[in-house]
Task: inverse folding
């Protein structure tokens, strides 16, 4: 006999989990405190609202991100299906119109009879029934305190940053130019707007960035623990004057049509919505005061008259120490009826959050049916991600995106044969992963 599954949080992981459960014929109650109570980063009450970026990362065949999305497509992910329908041009990345994406996910989840959506803040974990905690990086203080009570561990958090967005009409296309790196695009188009800088312009920009006044974070800290993969540009600049030029401002694969040469540095802007009325500055998350952002970013050629629809902001990201608390099925070791999913479980990235929401839902459904949850094979991207969250070193744990490093190595003979062909090695890892997933599904009742 099945039982009600409580899902706390209507973000990417929670929306995916609720849809999977209801589609399978089970009952779910989805709790989302927005719009009654907003977070410092969200702007709407829609489910699955994207906050930091509109990119679900690479769709390049045989990349780790591509493999994870392919596995999610195979398992019938609602959110990846919606992302495919609402995509906007972004080279070889899967980027979406974030407003249309969230609206379509919300409609799909709300349309299922098996889901009851409660627009209220949950301050305590339900003491009965199966629970999926998918409250994301902006978990409310009251619930975070109750999670601390449940886990017996102090909560961990780092600070994350949001990239600015500019009005498309305010970009000077007499200076900026359209192109994808090396001409690579999913449909052969020029998906990015690129702002080129010469050496003098770059040095002037770095000087201004280093002198700019930051805004104080929402939580006072002697040391601000940033997530390494999402460092604010001012933090990168403090690591060395050329760090940005080899990071988010790298000019490789681009040719300035005005000079016929590669620029010294470049800022890429990615289309934000289907109407192409706004663009976000790729990799330009920052924590500067709004007035300082306007002053510094308008030093970028092509953005001298930029009108900002949204400035960069800092927000707190909360996550648990997964390796100390979770098993490979994302179950809490101290109470197996409780599952964690999304960024609070210790993954980083939109697709990774969707993935853990789907996995937690499958395992929660197994438990509801009286079955033992069966973790996915480590050879799959999904299994490797859950293995990392549950088995990394708890003494130095930090959230992770999906990478090939998380998957088991190929057999020694195969590694030796493909030693000098990285693309072929990645292709073999993906082939092995997809085979392992099919074998898992074939042996799993109800797959």
Result:
């Amino acid at each position: 006999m099945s039982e009600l599954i409580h899902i706390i949080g209507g973000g990417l992981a929670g929306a995916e989990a609720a849809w999977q459960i209801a589609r399978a014929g089970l009952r779910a109650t989805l709790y989302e405190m927005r719009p009654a109570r907003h977070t410092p980063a969200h702007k709407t009450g829609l489910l699955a609202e994207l906050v930091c970026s509109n990119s679900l990362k690479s769709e390049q065949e045989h990349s780790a991100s591509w493999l994870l999305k392919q596995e999610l497509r195979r398992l019938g992910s609602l959110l990846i299906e919606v992302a495919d329908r609402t995509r906007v041009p972004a080279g070889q990345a899967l980027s979406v119109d974030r407003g249309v994406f969230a609206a379509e996910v919300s409609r799909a989840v709300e349309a299922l009879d098996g889901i009851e959506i409660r627009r209220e803040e949950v301050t305590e974990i339900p003491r009965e029934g199966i629970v999926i905690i998918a409250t994301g990086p902006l978990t409310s203080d009251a619930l975070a305190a109750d999670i601390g009570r449940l886990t017996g561990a102090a909560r961990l958090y780092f600070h994350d940053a949001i990239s600015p967005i500019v009005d498309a009409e305010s970009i000077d296309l007499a200076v900026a130019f359209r192109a994808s790196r090396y001409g690579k695009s999913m449909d052969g188009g020029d998906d990015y707007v690129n702002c080129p800088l010469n050496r003098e312009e770059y040095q002037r920009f770095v000087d201004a960035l280093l002198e700019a006044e930051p805004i104080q974070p929402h939580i006072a800290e002697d040391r601000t623990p940033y997530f390494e993969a999402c460092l604010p540009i001012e933090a990168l600049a403090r690591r060395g004057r050329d760090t940005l030029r080899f990071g988010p401002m790298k000019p490789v694969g681009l040719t300035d049509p005005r000079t016929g040469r590669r620029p010294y540095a470049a800022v890429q802007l990615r289309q934000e919505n289907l109407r192409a009325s706004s663009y976000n500055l790729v990799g330009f998350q920052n924590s500067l005061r709004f007035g300082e952002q306007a002053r510094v970013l308008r030093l970028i050629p092509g953005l001298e008259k930029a009108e900002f629809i949204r400035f960069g902001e800092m927000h707190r990201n909360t996550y648990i120490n997964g390796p100390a608390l979770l098993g490979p099925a994302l179950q809490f070791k101290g109470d197996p009826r409780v599952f964690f999913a999304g960024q609070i479980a210790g993954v980083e990235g939109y697709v990774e959050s969707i993935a853990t929401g789907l996995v937690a839902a499958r395992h929660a459904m197994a438990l509801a049916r009286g079955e033992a949850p069966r973790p996915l094979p480590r050879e799959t991207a999904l299994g490797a991600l859950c293995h990392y969250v549950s088995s990394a070193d708890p003494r130095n744990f930090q959230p992770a995106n999906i990478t090939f490093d998380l998957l088991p190595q190929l057999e020694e003979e195969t590694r030796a044969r493909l030693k000098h062909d990285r693309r072929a090695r990645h292709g073999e890892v993906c082939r092995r992963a997809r085979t392992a997933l099919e074998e898992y599904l074939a042996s799993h009742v109800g797959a």
